[in-house]
Design goal:
Number of strands: 11
CATH topology of the largest domain: Nucleotidyltransferase, domain 5
Helix content: 40-55%
Largest sheet: 6 strands, mixed
Strand content: 5-15%
Order of helices and strands: HEHHEHEEEHHHEHEHHEHHHHHHHEEHHE
CATH superfamily of the largest domain: Exopolyphosphatase. Domain 2
Oligomer: single chain
Strand order of the largest sheet: 5-4-3-6-8-7
Shape: elongated
CATH architecture of the largest domain: 2-Layer Sandwich
C-alpha cells in the first residue's frame, strides 16, 4: 500500500491543474479482490486528488478492446484480443470497434509467478504445473471463443509486450509471437534456472520475477485457443480509458445507452421514467448553490440523477413489493459496460433510498451531493406517484435560510387543496427526514408550517 500511495503522489504532481472531467483513474483485479481495498482507496484518493474507480472484469475487457482497436488500422476482420495482467487475463472477441464477447479470468503473471515460481526457480515441472493450472481456469473460454469465430489474434500489455521484446531482440519476427518462439523462450528460462540468473536482452529487471508465470499463462492460451501467431498490439487499457473519456465529453456516453438498454430489458415505463427525471432535475436545480457550484460537476450529478430516474422501477419486473430493494440489488450485481463498480453502487443506493425509511442510508447521507440527489428523487417520485405530469407551478423546493442542513417545500394554498394526496405524502416525507441529520419542512406560502 505504501508503494502504491507513493506512486499516486507522483501522479498527483503531474496532474496538478487538471480538471476532474479530464482525469480518470481506474483500478482492476487487485482491488477487485482486496479485502482492505477501502482502506487503500480512501487514502489513495486524498493523495491523488481525483476519484479512483474500481471497474469490473468485463468493463476492463471492454476498455482493453477499445484501446487495442483504436490503434489498429480500420478493418472488418474478426479479432481475438488477449491481455495478460498481473492478477487477471481478459479475452475479447470483436469486429471493428464493437466488442462482442468479453470475459475476465483470475489468472495472471504475478499471481501465477507467486504460486508456481515462488522460489524463483524455473523448472520443467514448475512450467507444466503452471500451464495445467492455467488451462483449468481458462477451459470454459473454449466454448465462448471457438477457433472459427476469429481470424486474427492480438495481445496487449505487460506479459505479451515483454515476450515480444525478448523474441524481437533475439531475431524473431517483429511484433509477432509464435508457438515456436514461446518454446524457445521457455527453454531459455529453464536453462537459466532462476529468475535472478536470467540474462536475456529485452527483459527488464522488474519483469524477471513475473515472466515465468506470464509465460506459462501465454503458453496455456496458445494451446487452448489453437493460436499459431499472435500480433502485439500497441493499444491497451489506458488507451481505452482515454477514448472512453473522450466519448463522454462528446456526448456519446456509452453509459446512457446502457441505462436505456437495461431499462428496456426490465420493461421500464419510459413515460413515467421521463416524468420523474424531468421533475427530479427541476427540483435538483432549485437547491443548488449557484454562487459556489462547479457547472461541470453539477452537469455530471444531473446525468447520474437522470440515470437513477430511468432505472427507478427496474425492480418491479421481479416483484412490486419492495421493488426498490430489487432494483438496488440488480445494479449492485450487474456488469454494465461503461460503469465502474462504485458508480453502479451509487445508483443502487439512490434507487434503494428513493422510498421508505432513510436509516438504511445513514453513511451515504453524510455526503451533501448524494443527499441533494436523493431528496430530489424522493420528492419527484412522490409528485409523480399518480403516473401523471405533476403541477409544479404551485410548489417549490428551497434550501432553508435558517439552517444549512435543512430544506423547505413551499406550496400555494390552492395547490394543497387541489392535490391533497400529494400533500399528505409530502408531510410523511418531512417526518422521514426528521430521523436524519437533515431536516425538511412543508410550508404554505403565507409562512405557515404544515
Amino acid at each position: 500500500m505504501e508503494r502504491g500511495w507513493e506512486c499516486l503522489a507522483r501522479f498527483s504532481e503531474r496532474l496538478s491543474g487538471f480538471g476532474p472531467q479530464h482525469v480518470r483513474a481506474v483500478a482492476t483485479q487487485t482491488l477487485r479482490e482486496a479485502k482492505n481495498r477501502d482502506e487503500f482507496l480512501n487514502h489513495a484518493e486524498k493523495i491523488l486528488g481525483f476519484p479512483i474507480e474500481v471497474i469490473s472484469g468485463r468493463e476492463e475487457a471492454r476498455l482493453i478492446y477499445s484501446g487495442v482497436v483504436h490503434l489498429l488500422p480500420q478493418s472488418e476482420e474478426k479479432r481475438l484480443v488477449i491481455d495478460i495482467g498481473g492478477r487477471s487475463t481478459e479475452l475479447i472477441l470483436g469486429k471493428g470497434f464493437k466488442p462482442q464477447t468479453m470475459e475476465s479470468y483470475r489468472v495472471g503473471s504475478v499471481k501465477w509467478s507467486m504460486k508456481y515460481f515462488a522460489d524463483g526457480n524455473f523448472t520443467p515441472m514448475a512450467f507444466e504445473w503452471a500451464e495445467v493450472a492455467a488451462k483449468a481456469v481458462l477451459d470454459e473460454a473454449l466454448a465462448l471463443y471457438p477457433k472459427n469465430c476469429w481470424e486474427v489474434a492480438y495481445g496487449s500489455s505487460g506479459t505479451i509486450g515483454a515476450v515480444t521484446d525478448v523474441l524481437q531482440a533475439a531475431g524473431w519476427p517483429e511484433e509477432v509471437i509464435t508457438r515456436e518462439g514461446l518454446d524457445w523462450l521457455k527453454e531459455k528460462l529453464i536453462k537459466a534456472g532462476r529468475a535472478d540468473a536470467l540474462r536475456l536482452e529485452g527483459v527488464k529487471e522488474d519483469r524477471k520475477p513475473v515472466i515465468g508465470g506470464g509465460l506459462a499463462v501465454l503458453c496455456a492460451l496458445f494451446d487452448l485457443m489453437q493460436i499459431d501467431t499472435m500480433h502485439a498490439a500497441q493499444g491497451a487499457l489506458r488507451h481505452g480509458v482515454l477514448y472512453d473519456l473522450l466519448q463522454r465529453e462528446e456526448s456519446t456516453d456509452l453509459r446512457s445507452a446502457m441505462v436505456l438498454a437495461l431499462g428496456n430489458r426490465f420493461a421500464v415505463d419510459v413515460t413515467q421514467a421521463e416524468r420523474v427525471q424531468k421533475t427530479a432535475l427541476a427540483l435538483f436545480k432549485s437547491i443548488q448553490d449557484k454562487a459556489n457550484s462547479d457547472a461541470d460537476r453539477v452537469k455530471r450529478l444531473e446525468k447520474k440523477l437522470t440515470w437513477a430516474s430511468h432505472l427507478l422501477e427496474i425492480g418491479t419486473r421481479i416483484s412490486h413489493s419492495d421493488f426498490h430493494k430489487h432494483g438496488a440489488y440488480i445494479l449492485d450485481n450487474a456488469d454494465l459496460p461503461g460503469f465502474s463498480m462504485s458508480e453502479l453502487h451509487r445508483l443502487s443506493q439512490l434507487i434503494l433510498g428513493h422510498r421508505g425509511k432513510l436509516k438504511k442510508l445513514e453513511v451515504e447521507l453524510k455526503d451533501l451531493e448524494f443527499t441533494l440527489q436523493l431528496l430530489s428523487l424522493r420528492i419527484a417520485a412522490i409528485l409523480c406517484h399518480a403516473r401523471r405530469d405533476p403541477d409544479l407551478k404551485g410548489i417549490s423546493l428551497k434550501i432553508s435560510d435558517a439552517s444549512k442542513t435543512g430544506f423547505v417545500i413551499q406550496c400555494k394554498k390552492t395547490w394543497l387543496q387541489q392535490w391533497p394526496q400529494s400533500a399528505h405524502l409530502l408531510r410523511e416525507e418531512c417526518i422521514a427526514w426528521q430521523k436524519t441529520t437533515w431536516q425538511l419542512e412543508l410550508i404554505e406560502l403565507n409562512g405557515k408550517t404544515i
